[in-house]
Specification:
It is built from 8 helices and 11 strands. The protein is an alpha/beta fold. It has one domain (7-264): TIM Barrel (Alpha-Beta Barrel). The strands form 2 sheets. The protein has an 8-stranded parallel β-barrel, surrounded by 6 helices. A 3-stranded antiparallel sheet has the order 6-5-8, with no helix packed on it. Strand 2 (48-52), helix 2 and strand 3 (91-94) form a beta-alpha-beta unit. The protein starts with 6 loop residues before the first strand and ends in a 6-residue tail after the last helix.
Amino acid sequence: MVRSPRGILGVVHLPAMPGDPNAEGDFDAMVAHAVADAQALRDGGVDGIVVENFGSVPFTKGDASCPLPPHQVAAITRAVLAVRDRFDGPIGVNCLRNDAEAALGIAAATGAQFIRVNVHVGAYVTDQGLIEGNAFATLRRRAALAPSVAILADVLVKHATPLAPVSPEDATKDTLERGLADGVIVTGRATGAPVDADLLRTVGSAAAEAPVYIGSGLTQQGADTLAPLCDGAIIGTAFKRDGQVRAPVDADRVRALCDVVRPRLRG
């Protein structure tokens, strides 16, 4: 298993870019947005940063039939390189909705240390339609391009419902033992929604020695209950000004939440 980052991973939500329905600026403005948020995350003391194309709604499935368009892959690459120039810790890539191939390509080209895959195994009904995991191709592409890049994969991911019922235990074990992910992520039902403590506890038990991350909704109020059940947390919304997902990252909020969460993480 490839070594996964631990601790608190802040998210750089890229704004809509040219070609997206909500685009307001050019590619240079998108990169400037990424740099500003990354610097606030760095100043607030995160352990790692995830760069994702959050503003590019509606998202493509990201599979072979409908991959990310080339200009988005190029733009995300620019953003990751800009973040890397200003941050020395681990950097990850998430190509929404589920383009693991593009994420691996960007990681290989930029030196990023990990990727996030929403649907790594199984099949889920989502607002993009039916998304099927493709661990077979993802693991082989990693071996060819970036063998040291960790794969963090969601279990029962937000904004999605499994095509057939599956228990959290089985979903976790399939992701790790059959999909060979390096760590698993547990989310609430939607962006910014809190994680259920019982679900997190169940996934943690099934994951055994593999790292487990909270992937949404962690706040200071939930830290005492949730942080001791995981090895790391991916935090986006709670780091933003006034806790608003489309606002800029606030370094003071980052620092305050890191101070509460970090000492409570297990391990």
